[in-house]
């Protein structure tokens, strides 16, 4: 191989290393977001008598929308995706 080939190979290797090192940071940020869902949904569903379905849908909505409205009821304007996700019948999907 020539010196030019080695230089190109070295540059591509460095580029791949930088790319994959940033992917680890992105993966860690995504995991942190999902770990926040359970405590937020536990509080959100604390006032209902239907805790199991509330937790199921709250965590599903949190994973998609990456937020949970404050409080135990209402306040959905604080999380537009959570507010706008509807069932086939047009009812709110998220508690």
Automatic annotation (TrEMBL):
Under PANTHER family, the record lists: EXTENSIN, PROLINE-RICH PROTEIN, GIBBERELLIN-REGULATED PROTEIN 5
Q: Taxonomically, which superkingdom?
A: Eukaryota
Keyword Signal tagged: yes
Report keywords, A-Z.
Signal
Please give the name of this protein: Protein RSI-1
The family line of this record is: Belongs to the GASA family.
Protein's organism? Lupinus luteus
* Alphabetized InterPro entries for the sequence: GASA (IPR003854)
Q: Does the keyword NADP apply?
A: no
| Annotated signal sequence range | 1-23
Organismal lineage: Eukaryota, Viridiplantae, Streptophyta, Embryophyta, Tracheophyta
């Amino acid at each position: 191989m020539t010196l030019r080939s080695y230089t190109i190979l070295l540059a591509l290797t460095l580029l791949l290393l930088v790319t994959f090192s940033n992917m680890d940071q992105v993966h860690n940020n995504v995991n942190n977001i999902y770990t926040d869902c359970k405590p937020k949904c536990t509080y959100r569903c604390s006032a209902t008598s239907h805790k199991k379905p509330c937790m199921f849908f709250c965590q599903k909505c949190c994973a998609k929308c990456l937020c949970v409205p404050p409080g135990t009821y209402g306040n959905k304007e604080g999380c537009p995706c959570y507010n706008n996700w509807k069932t086939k019948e047009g009812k709110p999907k998220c508690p």
